[in-house]
User: Fold this.
Amino acid sequence: MRSLDTHKSVLDPLITSSAATTFTFSGTYLMLNNSVGFMTKEGTPTNGTSGDGAAVIGVGGMCIDRTNGVVHVNAGTKASPVYARVLSCPASDNIFIITTASTPSSGTSGDGAGTCGVGSMAIDTATGKVYSNQGTKASPAWTELT
Assistant:
């Protein structure tokens, strides 16, 4: 386990690693490069220039509502986030964020099969596209978020 401080870029060298790495994080935001950030909070995220993640979470960044098990993606701007509800997650599933070097593969032998629950995200590091698992934990169905 590795512990991260707020706004550190220590994940950047690990993104290309094929080894599974578990992080514990006690800060407000977890940032990858290009302002793609992730955060969690109790309840629905607030939009706007004084909202959750304003000036920090760029387009495609995520906020996971831990109270209701809902994933939101910033469809606004970094300066003024507008969080769009992506989907709700069953309480029995784990939400993971994985990276791939290409479009994630779906199905029982696909990327994240058996691990990534509904609402998990996959980031294609070659294109920067973000995908959401809208299938099942056993058989992910990766759908591009647009």
Observations:
- Residues 1-20 have pLDDT under 50 and may be disordered.
- The chain is about 0% helix and 30% strand.
- The CA atoms of residues 99 and 123 lie 5 Å apart.
